[in-house]
Amino acid sequence: MPTASTVDRPVRVYADGIFDLFHSGHARALMQAKTLFPNSYLLVGVCSDDLTHKFKGFTVMNEAERYEALRHCRYVDEVIRDAPWTLTPEFLEKHKIDFVAHDDIPYSSAGSDDVYKHIKEAGMFVPTQRTEGISTSDIITRIVRDYDVYARRNLQRGYTAKELNVSFINEKKYRFQNQVDKMKEKVKNVEERSKEFVNRVEEKSHDLIQKWEEKSREFIGNFLELFGPDGAWKQMFQERSSRMLQALSPKQSPVSSPTRSRSPSRSPSPTFSWLPVKTSPPSSPKAASASISSLSEGDEDEK
User: Fold this and answer.
1) Fewest CB within a 10 Å sphere: which of 35, 47, 127, 273?
2) Contact 48, 24 (CB under 8 A)
3) Handedness of CA 206, 208, 209, 213 (dihedral sign)
């Protein structure tokens, strides 16, 4: 059997498996097989549904889906369909396989403690490392564990209860739970929007209070500057007050100025004898003589 140092062509490395629910653990194993040698050609054998169901069990993906998944892996150069469960010399010779890559854990199946035992004895086996925490069985375990969640999700997406193999009672239960979840989601959205509104109001209130404080300080400063103890208003008021006092206070008269003497006796009040007295004309000669006599008597009294 040729080795990597004696061949001028790419080293043909073979890796086989079921590759159900193709995942990152499969991809990392194929990456290791591809990079075992600087110049390599990776062939990947995929077992058929009949062979897999016979020796391992039922698969989630059918063989066509598993073939297609391997064909799109970047590390795979060629996919061998309907690969044998146990590698025979004839199969190795037909595909000119130089090395077989697989994890080193003994793989007991088909009545054998390790189906790769004869490959290891021939010196054609190259071990790869498994990726912990990920495998097809792990993924199926997650689905079984969370079966109710996935059943409810698929019912909500339009799958029928018959397609999901769900009983009538479970279907009604799942649909009711979906309605409850929708209501919870609506309530949650309302609460989130309410919180956002409250936060916006608080932010705006904080901004308004801060602006009000700034304006208040500015107003108080201007007020004190104008009306404070040493403010401009006091100075202006003092200046105007002094001007008004100067304007209102009379000038003092000279000491040597003459003064007017006043008589201590009381001047008689003026009489208005010069004013004409309006009298009505006498209606008769007797009345005229009576008025004349009264006037003469009045003159005598004044004398």
Assistant:
1) 273
2) no
3) positive
DSSP state of 268: P
Q: 178 with 191: CB under 8 angstroms?
A: no
Three-state secondary-structure class, residue 82: coil
Pair (17, 94) in one structural domain: yes
Q: Residue 182: which domain range?
A: 136-242
- As a residue count, the chain comes to 303
DSSP letter at 46 equals: E
**Dist CA 281 CA 291 (whole Å):** 10
Q: Give the CA count within 13 Å in the CB-facing half-sphere of 214.
A: 6
CB-count burial class (<10 Å; 0-12, 13-18, 19+) for 200: exposed
Same-domain status, 117 and 15: yes
Note the pLDDT tens digit of each residue in 24-56. Answer: 999 999 999 999 999 999 999 999 999 999 998
The answer, yes or no, to whether residue 278 has pLDDT greater than 90, is: no
Instruction: Using the 3D structure, point to which of 242, 257, 280 is the last residue of a domain.
Output: 242
Residue 113 lies in a domain: yes
Number of folded domains that form the chain: 2
